[in-house]
From TrEMBL:
<dbReference type="Pfam" id="PF00657">
    <property type="entry name" value="Lipase_GDSL"/>
</dbReference>
<dbReference type="InterPro" id="IPR050592">
    <property type="entry name" value="GDSL_lipolytic_enzyme"/>
</dbReference>
<dbReference type="InterPro" id="IPR035669">
    <property type="entry name" value="SGNH_plant_lipase-like"/>
</dbReference>
<protein>
    <submittedName>
        <fullName>GDSL esterase/lipase EXL3</fullName>
    </submittedName>
</protein>
<feature type="region of interest" description="Disordered">
    <location>
        <begin position="1"/>
        <end position="27"/>
    </location>
</feature>
<dbReference type="InterPro" id="IPR001087">
    <property type="entry name" value="GDSL"/>
</dbReference>
<dbReference type="InterPro" id="IPR036514">
    <property type="entry name" value="SGNH_hydro_sf"/>
</dbReference>
<comment type="similarity">
    <text>Belongs to the 'GDSL' lipolytic enzyme family.</text>
</comment>
<dbReference type="GO" id="GO:0016788">
    <property type="term" value="F:hydrolase activity, acting on ester bonds"/>
</dbReference>
Amino acid sequence: MGSLFSPIPSANKAVPGSAASRRDKREKMQLTSSRASHLALPILIHLSQLLLTLSQSTNQTTPLVPAVIVFGDSIVDPGNNNAIKTVVKCNFPPYGVDFIGHKPTGRFSNGKIPTDFIASKLGVKELLPAYLGTTLGPEDLLTGVSFASGGTGFDPLTSRVASVLSMAEQLELFQEYKEKVRAIAGAKRADEILSKALYLVCAGSDDIANTYFTTPFRRTHYDISSYSNLLLHSASNFLQELIHLGARKIGVAGIPPIGCVPSQRTLSGGILRHCAPGHNQMAELFNSGLTKEIRRLGDKHRVKVVYIDIYTILLDMIQRPNNYGFEVSTKGCCGTGDLEVSVLCNGLTSTICTDVSQYVFWDSYHPTERAYKVLVDWLYQNYISYLV
């Protein structure tokens, strides 16, 4: 039965349509919104943390080797020469103009050098530091350094002429470095790091360009063939000592087409600045002998020693620059591009090109960061499987 009376509004209940009713609706909506916000906030925080974790796990890679350890010349010197008395330096502008912070570090380029790209690709670290002249923390030491010194070579005379670290002195520093790694990590872990590390060796260009063809000291006693053999003998001794000191994975770069770098075209290429044939002939002889010697050493000592051919790819970049996105391959970006290198490429007397990305060479001797990246990408694709 229906009620005989209409419901009487409660004293606490607003009449529909009244101002009080509208106020109640607003309060309910605000309360609902507030509760939703309180519920959404933890969910958003959780989602943000989840996305951050996923992003970090995506960006992090397991290093393919525990450390990268490097010996050689200016191609792989990240600044060791800053700490020694020599004129072979580049710790001043315009070197480093495209490096992080636009600062010169002692790298003989406008930016990064090959070993930086290699260490990054292997997942070890973004930059491979110099052993000398920098403050190195435990992690820096454990993940590898470079002992390379711009201006050095396999011929002991080369480093003396330039007053830089010889290859033998780099090995002495390596032994000192090994003791530091052991002090940090303990003997067992240190031995594991050093035995699994990737060792890279890059030298020989300065022997040809700066010692044999520039000074008279060797040419009076050696022809191209016999001097190539002298370099090969010294390189073999160096590699055997490195193996004796514990290296088990060694990549050895051959000599590039040094006769085609801008400075050697200017000095030895005639009025038309052709590639200097004698320089390239010696590089090819050395590389041919080095390939065989590396195979012999690997078999003898049962270690990975891999010859890395940089001659072919660099020669192709120089002869067909357009195929790699470059325009200029016979001159450097610094100054006239014909002779400026090291102290001759400076912020006081040298201007730089307007678009360095179009140049294979930064100065008259060393490639640009972009050319180095092209080179390393190619080398990584073709050689990494043999080294790690």
